[in-house]
């Protein structure tokens, strides 16, 4: 029997502190190549800290972060990004006084310039609106358009794994639906995704698998379709 393929991302018993306060208590999870995995939980559950630990903004007290077979636990953020990570941060965090094209160019800063035109064309194919708005200042765009820029900027780095931090936050309900359709399209285009989200129903509707965090611990995990109908999850999160 062939060995199971190495996950693209693996967290092994991650314990993280802020000062003397323990935030993550032995988190273990994985994302396989080609998967869309969601990480669910309420406020202060440890979701964003998990992403920061993966990205290298927070160093764990113990445990390992393994990316594409490499132990990256001690690596700085730029080295992890060069190794295939990208993030669409909470609230998008665009440079509002720069054009759409200039924001996209920032996503390619660590890439070989010989692929820039090809990568930009790929982003414009996914998000035609960004081509139309390419000379417009990012700060003047609608919330949905800004989310497209944030995703396009991340994709310009040719990531193996795209981290998404609360992609529905601050969007009107109609834009939330559109946003999740875009995330699904990005995933179907071949990008693996780990998405942190409070909107459990929407996240599980497009995910392959999910994990549920509560006060720094994973309390549920499994296929998305099963979690969507799990009684504990429905009581705790669905319908919020």
Helix and strand topology:
Elements: E1 9-18, E2 21-31, E3 36-40, H1 47-55, E4 62-67, E5 70-71, H2 77-82, E6 85-88, H3 100-107, H4 116-126, H5 128-132, H6 143-155, E7 161-165, H7 173-188, E8 192-197, H8 200-206, E9 209-214, E10 217-223, H9 224-228, H10 231-236
Parallel strand pairs: 3-8, 3-9, 6-7, 7-8
Antiparallel strand pairs: 1-2, 1-4, 4-5, 9-10
Helix pairs in contact: 3-6, 6-7
What's the short version?
The protein has 240 residues and is an alpha/beta fold.
Please characterize this protein's 3D structure.
The protein is an alpha/beta fold. The protein is built from 10 helices and 10 strands. Helix 3 runs parallel beside helix 6 and helix 6 runs parallel beside helix 7. The termini are far apart. The model has no long low-confidence stretch (mean pLDDT 86).
Features:
single chain, alpha/beta, 36% helix, 10 helices
Helix content: 25-40%
Unreliable sequence segments: none
Q: What's the overall average pLDDT, rounded?
A: 86
Shape: globular
Radius of gyration: 18 Å
Task: Count up the helices.
Answer: 10
Secondary-structure element sequence? EEEHEEHEHHHHEHEHEEHH
Oligomer: single chain
**Structure classification:** alpha/beta
| Spatial order of the strands forming the largest sheet | 6-7-8-3-9-10
Range of strand content: 25-35%
Major sheet: 6 strands, mixed
Q: How many DSSP-defined strands?
A: 10
